[in-house]
């Protein structure tokens, strides 16, 4: 049985630890091939950055994380996160709320009621978007009905 894990890998004093935010069984084995293709893309992207900036003394390893894919610095799609009319998706608006500095500081996360009130959308529509973000590994439930982005975790 294969599983898909979303988390944060940390290294300290020669030891590596993985803080897992979500785990789910792998149903579609095309995800394995997709993962390898993503790894190749990220590797090529990172090596091209390093070779295209020869005057910089050292590159910082903490490249921006693309929360919708859960890996480092893949070139974004020109349409990602937007509907045809140019407005942000509900998922992107939820992430924007979770990324606010006042909300990043909250250890318990942001309540779903507060998010729904801020966005002015029904709770059932909000929960569908939250479920999608959790499945993608972009957010996690910190405490009951309170959510945090993996970027602020």
UniProtKB/TrEMBL annotation:
Gene Ontology CC: chromosome, telomeric region; DNA replication factor A complex; site of double-strand break
InterPro entries according to UniProt: NA-bd_OB-fold, RFA2-like, RPA_C, WH-like_DNA-bd_sf, WH_DNA-bd_sf
Ranges for domain Replication protein A C-terminal: 43-145
Domain of life assignment: Eukaryota
GO molecular function, one term: single-stranded DNA binding
GO biological process: DNA replication; double-strand break repair via homologous recombination; nucleotide-excision repair
Stretches for region Disordered: 55-85
Compartment annotation: Nucleus
Ranges of compositional bias, category Polar residues: 55-65, 75-85
Keyword terms: DNA damage, DNA recombination, DNA repair, DNA-binding, Nucleus
Family to which the UniProt record says this protein belongs: Belongs to the replication factor A protein 2 family.
Protein name according to UniProt: Replication protein A C-terminal domain-containing protein
Annotated source species: Acacia crassicarpa
Lineage per the UniProt record: Eukaryota, Viridiplantae, Streptophyta, Embryophyta, Tracheophyta
């Amino acid at each position: 049985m294969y599983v898909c894990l979303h988390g944060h890998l940390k290294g300290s004093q020669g030891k590596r630890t993985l803080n897992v935010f979500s785990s789910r069984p792998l149903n579609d084995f095309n995800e394995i091939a997709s993962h390898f293709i993503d790894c190749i893309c990220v590797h090529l992207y990172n090596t091209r950055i390093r070779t295209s900036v020869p005057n910089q003394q050292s590159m910082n390893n903490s490249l921006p994380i693309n929360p919708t894919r859960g890996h480092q610095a893949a070139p974004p799609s020109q349409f990602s996160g937007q509907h045809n009319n140019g407005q942000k998706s509900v998922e992107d608006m939820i992430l924007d709320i979770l990324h606010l500095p006042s909300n990043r500081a909250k250890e318990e996360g942001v309540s779903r009621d507060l998010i729904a009130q801020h966005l002015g959308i029904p709770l059932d529509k909000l929960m569908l978007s939250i479920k999608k973000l959790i499945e993608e590994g972009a957010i996690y439930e910190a405490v009951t009905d309170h959510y945090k982005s993996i970027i602020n975790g």
